[in-house]
Design goal:
- By secondary structure, the protein is an alpha/beta fold.
- It has seven helices and 14 strands.
- The protein has helices at about 70-80, 100-110, 125-130, 165-175, 190-205, 230-240, 250-255, and strands at about 5, 5-15, 25-30, 35, 50-55, 60-65, 70, 90, 115-120, 140, 150, 180-185, 210-215, 245.
- The strands form three sheets. A ten-stranded mixed β-sheet has the order 6-5-2-3-8-9-10-12-13-14.
- β5 (about 50-55) and β6 form a beta hairpin.
- α1 (about 70-80) runs parallel beside α2 (about 100-110) and α4 runs parallel beside α5.
- The longest helix is centred in the last third of the chain and has 14 residues, at about 190-205.
- The protein is globular and about 45 Å long.
- The model has no long low-confidence stretch (mean pLDDT about 95).
- The protein binds iron/sulfur cluster.
- Iron/sulfur cluster binds near residues 36, 39, 93, 95 and 122.
- Iron/sulfur cluster binds near residues 34, 35, 39 and 94.
Length: about 260
């Protein structure tokens, strides 16, 4: 029986990115191979022992089941939360593309019931994306900046860590989906040369792609968020290369929602 390692399934609204505010049913995958300094979900870094299933939409009341979860049971839990009434079903994490077979099977089953399939990903697993891209409606990919992000297993952050090549390759595959959005989380450590390189690479693929600048919500090793002047300066900088740049903070943190 096909299974998936999940952390939780719950109903909410999209809290970030281009589709902020849209009703969304989330399936959060367990396991991640990156370590972002500002990650607000460190409990997803390793496969979870238990999966939380919300009992009624938006209640934040859960019951737990053991992992791995049969895919049929995951779809049934989504249906019990009124899947069909949501604009999006979002596969998030952790990193969903570490379990591409589950992404494919869940993606087919969920979108067949009505919602658009939204994939939230760290944006470096291009080979895995190749195997699922035809079942995804929206790819929301991060563009990681090496100033705040390291790979799992690296003891210390390296100043020269770079994800640009992997992201560019990933983006070229992601463009086959009906919509792709690039999201870059910026912190006080972010450097202009990293943002310039990202803008150059994205523009080289398609300068019309939407790029969301998301100010970091302080968490973990990151204690502050960039100031307004710095954020507006970075926005203008990216707009020199890109035609659709948006500055959008995480709204679910403001609401105190999941
Ligand atoms: S890729 Fe996502 S889940 Fe993984 S460490 Fe970064 S923010 Fe956390």
């Amino acid at each position: 029986m096909a299974t998936v390692n999940l952390v939780e399934i719950f109903s909410s609204v999209q809290g970030e990115g281009l589709h902020v505010g849209a009703s969304t049913l989330f399936l959060r995958f367990g396991g991640c191979d990156l370590r972002c300094g500002w990650c607000d979900s460190p409990h997803t870094w390793n496969p979870a022992g238990q999966c939380r299933l919300e009992q009624t939409p938006g209640s934040a009341v859960f019951r737990s089941v053991a992992n791995p979860v049969p895919l049929e049971a995951a779809v049934a839990a989504a249906e019990a939360l009124g899947l069909v009434r949501h604009r999006f079903a979002s596969l998030t994490g952790g990193e969903p593309l570490l379990q591409p077979e589950a992404v494919r099977t869940l993606g087919e089953a969920l979108r067949a019931r009505g919602p658009l399939l939204h994939l939230e990903t760290h944006g470096i697993a291009a080979e895995a994306l190749e195997t699922v891209i035809d079942v995804v409606d929206v790819v929301s990919m991060d563009w990681k900046l090496g100033s705040d992000v390291r790979r799992k297993g690296r003891r210390a952050r390296r100043v020269d860590e770079s994800f640009h090549d992997e992201h560019e390759r990933f983006l070229r595959v992601a463009k086959r989906a009906p919509q792709v959005v690039v999201k870059v989380v910026v912190s006080p450590s972010s450097r202009e040369e990293e943002l310039d390189e990202m803008a150059r690479r994205v523009a080289g693929v398609d300068p019309n792609l939407p790029v969301v600048i998301q100010p970091v919500t302080p968490f973990g090793s990151v204690a502050a968020t960039p100031g307004a002047q710095q954020l507006l300066g970075w926005t203008a900088r990216l707009q020199a290369e890109l035609h659709d740049v948006r500055l959008i903070p995480q709204t679910h943190k403001l609401l105190g929602a999941l």
